[in-house]
Amino acid sequence: MAARVQKIDLASQAFARDPFPTYARLREAGPVFQARLPLLGKTWLATTYQAASEVLKDDEKFVMEPKKVGKTLFSGILRLLPRTLRVFSDNMLRHDNPDHRRLRRLVEQAFSRHSVEGMRGRIGALCDGLLAGLAGRETVDLLAEWARPLPVAVICELLGLPDEDRPKFTRWVKVLFRSVSLVGMLLALPTIFRLLKYFRRHFEQCRRQPRPGLMTALVQAEQDGDTLSEDELLAMAFLLLFAGFETTVHLLGGGTLALLKAPEQKERLLNDWSLLPPAVEELLRFVSPVQMSEPRYVVRDLEFYGQPLRRGDYVVAWLGAANADPARFPDPEKLDLARSPNPHVAFGSGIHFCLGAQLARVEAQVGFERLFTRYPRLALAVADSELKHSGNMLLRALVALPVRLQ
């Protein structure tokens, strides 16, 4: 029997503002159902914690590489991209092992717990500088003046990019993350061309005059005889720069909003900063800045939670819905900063577990402590119903966060 295609609007303001009712309604359709998504078309969505975890971890049934199901890498919408731009889509997220392992191990050291913890002091200094610049003002857009520039500064320092380039990266990313339709992708092409040109020039500079940072390390990287080709360098730079900070922007923005809407939880944190690590884990679960995983391909015809999946079908793990599964998280609609255990999948799972997870955690821990220590009476400057979200179904992303510093 053909599966019924569910009609859901994941880009609506109502959903982004409060996704929990939609999660609950769609759980009634079962752990796995089919919906029509922009750019992808008919796609299977795994919505429960168990089903989503299986999609993320089972790389025998679900793969990233289309060639394993008889398709080409640049099929569908990607075939419309100019050949010179397709390199950005061919990053390590699009590969299974052993290629994924080869690419990932060349950058893992820079994102290790030891390396990231060593940046904690510098992240604090960057945060303090941004927050000090807000002093004396009654109302500010916290997303534009703190939640976005902090991760931009951190990732630029990590990569070894010039300080003066940060404003342009902020503009470029805003353009790219608005590209959630075919028209949006076409409008973003000039920005992507600028990025391509910038990265090529920067790699050449790193070869001639090495400077501290991950970009130089990537140019010079070699492990067990492996090096990165020019195309692999470009794909890696694109992935690290944008995946490395845009999601953290919305953890900071969405997490701040969640705390402001739950004042008893905010006060709990302000009275006991030892709660910071579990608090950040709970905000990751509750906000789920990344709503969905990258799409996988079904390797062979199979039945999955009662649904007939066919070879070559798209399937995604709906991370936001999995993080709201009451079978795994008691009272999932409640923000509980001391929730334990908290095995959320906000960073994914399996071999594609987010490379920058530890960096995002440290940025959020430092960021929230510095923000609410300096401005403990922070409050929304508009009604919650007036806040706008981006409409990007992959991210739960505020457009702005106007607050009163008080």
Description:
The protein is α+β, with helices and mostly antiparallel strands and 406 residues long. It has 18 helices and 11 strands. The protein has helices at residues 13-17, 20-27, 49-57, 99-105, 113-117, 120-132, 142-147, 149-159, 166-176, 182-187, 189-208, 214-220, 230-243, 246-261, 263-270, 276-287, 319-322, 357-374; strands spanning 5-6, 32-37, 41-46, 62-63, 139-141, 296-298, 302-304, 307-309, 314-317, 379-380, 402-404. It has a 6-stranded mixed sheet. A hairpin with a 3-residue loop joins strand 2 (32-37) and strand 3 (41-46). Helix 11 (189-208) packs across helix 13 (230-243). It is globular. The termini are far apart.
The percent range for strand residues is 5-15%
Quick one: how many beta strands? 11
- The outline comes out as globular
Helix content: 40-55%
Mean pLDDT equals 88
Strand order, main sheet: write it out: 1-2-3-9-6-4
Write down the Rg. 21 Å
Question: What structural category characterises the helix and strand content?
Answer: alpha+beta
Q: Strand count, sense and closure of the main sheet?
A: 6 strands, mixed
The SSE order reads: EHHEEHEHHHEHHHHHHHHHHEEEEHHEE
Enumerate how many helices there are, as a single number: 18
